[in-house]
Specification:
Blueprint: H1 11-28, H2 32-41, H3 49-54, H4 70-92, H5 95-98, H6 101-117, H7 119-129, H8 132-135, H9 142-156, H10 162-176, H11 181-195
Organism: Selaginella moellendorffii
Keywords: RNA-binding, Transcription, Transcription antitermination, Transcription regulation
Pfam families: NusB
Length: about 200
């Protein structure tokens, strides 16, 4: 998952970068490509290679955890805090320090561009797919809906295999959203793919 310069190089890393940029654009009301450009123009600070080595694309959030004693709970809390610090360091660092050229190019020229340009069409599709419990709080589900927008753009515009895209969208939801989001994202995108 790291190249010879200790930068993330996988398509999943491109999706994570794209998700962060698209979400930041939605929250700030800015064009996501401008958000990425602003991040690219920021001062570059090195990221410790150990932090990159410890970054885990597959870390899951939202899953219930059970412990048998207080010391076990404290150890688990400590580990989660360490992982959160690693995540925050990488997801807010200068993109050129963390991601290789493939990830930056694929994220910017493919995923972010396709998602941004097709936003209105995707919005109509996502609104149809959302469960009724989410429709009333769709602004509270921006991260989840952004994942679905990205997935629809990858399928429709980039022609990526729906099975790959849906799997990656579910993994992003497991990684960054709460407990029920992966199932909802999987169900919504599965329904979308079957209805095409």
């Amino acid at each position: 998952k790291l190249d010879k310069f200790h930068r993330l190089r996988s398509p999943r890393a491109a999706r994570e970068l794209s998700l962060c940029v698209l979400y930041a654009g939605l929250v700030s009301g800015s064009d996501p490509l401008e958000v990425l450009e602003d991040r690219m123009q920021a001062r570059r600070e090195r990221v410790d290679e150990k932090v990159l080595d410890q970054y885990d694309h597959d870390a899951k959030s939202g899953e219930p955890l059970y412990v048998s004693c207080e010391s076990e709970a404290k150890e688990l809390e400590f580990q989660q805090e360490q992982q959160s610090e690693i995540d925050a360091a990488l997801l807010t660092a200068h993109p050129c320090v963390v991601y290789n050229k493939f990830v930056l190019r694929y994220g910017k020229e493919k995923i972010i561009k396709a998602t941004s340009e097709g936003r209105e069409k995707q919005e109509a599709v996502v609104k149809e797919l959302l469960p009724s419990t989410w429709k009333d709080e769709s602004n509270g589900k921006l991260l989840e809906t952004t994942i679905m927008h990205m997935a629809i753009a990858e399928i429709e515009v980039l022609g990526t295999s729906p099975n790959i895209v849906i799997n990656e969208a579910v993994e992003l939801a497991k990684r960054f959203c709460d407990g029920f989001a992966p199932r909802v994202v999987n169900g919504c995108l599965g329904n979308y793919f079957r209805s095409r």
